[in-house]
Structure formats: C-alpha cells, structure tokens
Amino acid sequence: MDYRAIARVSNSDLTRLKEEHLGYWSVPSARWATEQTKTFGKAFHQHLLEPESVGTVLEQLLPDLAPKQAVQLGTLMQTIRQDAFCRRYLRLSERERVVLFTDPMSGIDCKARLDMVYTSPKRRNALVMDIKTTSARTQAQFLQSCYDYDYDRQAAFYLDSLRYADHDEWATTRQFRFVFIGVMKQKPYRLFAVDATSIPGFIDYGRKKYRFWLRKWRDEQESDRRPTDRVSSVTAHPFQRVA
Fold first, then answer.
1. Residue-range domain boundaries for the chain
2. Using one digit for the tens of pLDDT, what is the confidence trace for 174-224?
3. Whose C-alpha in 116, 154, 212, 235 is 20 to 30 A from the C-alpha of 129?
C-alpha cells in the first residue's frame, strides 16, 4: 500500500496546513529541518523499522549522507537495539502500521502511519511508540521539544486513529498509551523516554490542536479555494505560543 497515495488527511498534512497559515518559519520543525536532516531521519526510520527494505532504501539515501552520518546512523541503531525496552517492542510490535479512521467531530477521513504499535494478546491494552532523533542533551530538553514540535498533536492524532479505526480493530481496548523515545544524535547517544499519556493535559491539548486544523482543512475544502488563495498568516491563532 502506497501510504502517500491514500486520499485522506494525515498529521503531516496538518503540519503543512499550519505552515501555510502561520508562515513556514513559524513552525520549528520546518525552520530547523534541513534537507540533509530530513534525509538522515528517513534513513534512520527505514533502517530501524523496515530492515527488510534497507538494501534498496539505503542505496538511494546513503549517497546523500556524508560518511560521518553513515557511521552515526549505525551508532544510533546499536544504541536503540541494546536497550531492553526498545528491543522488546521492536520484536513484538507491528511496525509502520497504517491505520485509517474517521474523526467523529468533523467527519473527515484521516490516516496515520505509526512507527510501532503493540496490542496485548487479549486486545485490552495498546501501546504506541514513536522514535525521534534529537539534539536534546537532557530529559527536560527532550520533553520541551515534545511541545515545540507539536508532538502533543501527533500523539493525540495517532491514539485517536486507534480509537476510531475504520474496522473497529481496537474497539475492546481499554487502555491506550503513547511513548516517545528520543535518541541523541551526538555522544553520548543517550535515550530519553516520555510517556505522553501520563502528562496531565498533554493529549487533550494535542487533540484540540489537531481538530482545530481539521476544521481549517474542511473549511478550505468546502470553499474550494486554491492553495495560492489561502491566508498566509493568522494573527490570533489559539495555539500559537508567545515567546
């Protein structure tokens, strides 16, 4: 299944919509992500989550990576696979799982591609894990990046994809958890973990944000305006943080 060809709204689509409305440089993930960084991130995820396709993918990506980055990639893989928690769920989870769902508030058809999702044998519990490379050097810095990069919106969007999945696959699931794993891109290559579902208000705030942008998406579809006609900035956006 070609995920990009599925005609539904993804969390990445909402990021692009936000960039269009607030200005590209107002979004930290866009402001600081160079093409080289994006290439490295793609190679990292392919190597970790889809090892069966590593040969083909890395043939395409590694020429764009400096030799130092290729070594760095191998080091990050080793760091994650040596961690007992990560190793366990890499083995037990479905990787790169595509979930189709409909947001019950807006009626918009959505899609999500989850790094890893583990469902307990009796389907009572579900754990979603998302792995990020990070420049953070402390747990506190990684936690702050979860707010800076709209990870709260991503976590809410992904958890709700399971709750409202089109085929009711997780209909009997009672507990949903979402954990971000951050791996430092520099020495000493530490791992950080943030249980997003344990932070008061984190998921609820992220849900408000993604539904705000879904409404924007629906309004623009209904008005049938072209992308060039969209407003380039919003002066009173309810989720825009003031420095």
1. 3-33+83-223
2. 999 999 999 998 899 999 999 999 999 999 999 999 999 999 999 988 886
3. 212
Global pTM value = 0.80
Cis-peptide, bond into residue 188, ω within 30° of zero: yes
d(CA 238, CA 23): 15
Report the 10 Å Cβ neighbour count for 99. 22
Q: Does domain 3-33+83-223 have CATH number 3.30.70?
A: no
Contact 126, 175 (CB under 8 A): yes
Say which residues have a Cβ less than 8 Å from residue 76's Cβ, sequence separation at least 6: 44, 133, 183, 185, 189
What are the start-end ranges of the H helices in the chain?
11-22, 28-32, 35-49, 54-61, 67-82, 84-92, 139-148, 151-163, 202-223
- Cα–Cα distance, 65 to 139 (Å, whole number): 28
**From the CB of residue 105, how many other CB atoms can be counted at a distance below 10 Å?**
11
